[in-house]
Every structure is written in structure tokens, then in C-alpha cells.
Amino acid sequence: MWAFPLAECARKNVSEKCEERRRDAVRYDKDAVLSLLRRKEIAYRIVEHKRVFTSEEGKALGLPDGARVAKNLFLRDDKKQQYYLAVVQQNRRLNLKALRARLGSRPLTFASEEDLMRLLGLSKGAVTPLGVLHDEAGQVQVLLDEYFLDGQIGVHPNENTATVWLDAADLAALLAEYVHPVSWLNFS
Question: What is 6-185's CATH number?
């Protein structure tokens, strides 16, 4: 798969390349995510575990480097015009009103399971920043907690039966390559 995002198809006269990209589009399940990380030479480690649906269930697993595991909140504004994926340290509480003010957005709420599947190709409990690999139109803005800056982050590889740890800067660079520049925010 080449790095030319589908979102560019609407902006450039590259219809032949865009058709090729659409034909080669990959469904990023766990194996495809791990394959992508290897192709991009991004170092990672993985721990397989039972299926978890909440950050509390994840904490109960007693994973190594548990404090570096992210909690992911898929949000939208009240008009369904802006979507955000807030990736925060798992013990943080997120104040939606304060986040709204920082982003200059309309009122925020949690996005629906239908929006989650439509935009990120994920089911409830499997939310991860790697899900934005499915959002080729770039509709979802990724907000990464500065807590992870200069260190590792643990996220699901698009399935909630495993956690992968990788350098947060590598994650941000990968998402930016696939049309999702990351905004680093201090959520403390």
C-alpha cells in the first residue's frame, strides 16, 4: 500500500492513482496493523489478552507498563460536523466542557457506535488511534495526551484482544502519513 491518502484524490488531478489506491485499500485488522508496523520499521511489542471493553477491564489485566496504556474517547460535536479521538492516559478524567473551550468547538458528546463503525471501522471496546487508518477522508481529529510525548504508548491494534506498545512519536508520524496529523494536548 502506498502512502498517498484517498483524501488527496478530491484535491488533485490524480484519478488513476486514486483508483489504484481504492483497489489496494486494506482493512486494518490486527494482523494488517502489525504488518504495517513491520513494513514501516516501527518497533513494537505486543501482549495478547482476553477481550476487554473498558479501561477498567484493561487495568485489571495487570499489563506491563500499565500506566502507559491509553484510554480512547471517540467524541463528536452536537451537529456531527467534527469528530475527535481523545487519546489520554488511562487514569485521567476528561472534562468535555474544558476540551470544547480549548478546541473552540461546538458542544461535545460521545459519538455513537454507528459513527464509530462508519468512520473508524471499530466496535465498542476496541477504540484505538490506529482505527483512524480506516478514516481515509480525514474526518477524525486525533488528540494525543502530552503524557505520552517522548515515551511509549499502549494501544489496541484495532482489536481489543491485544495491546501493542510503540513509541508515541512513531504513532503520531504514522497517523500523519495517513492523513491524520496529531494534536498534542495537556489533559492533566
Answer: 3.90.960.10
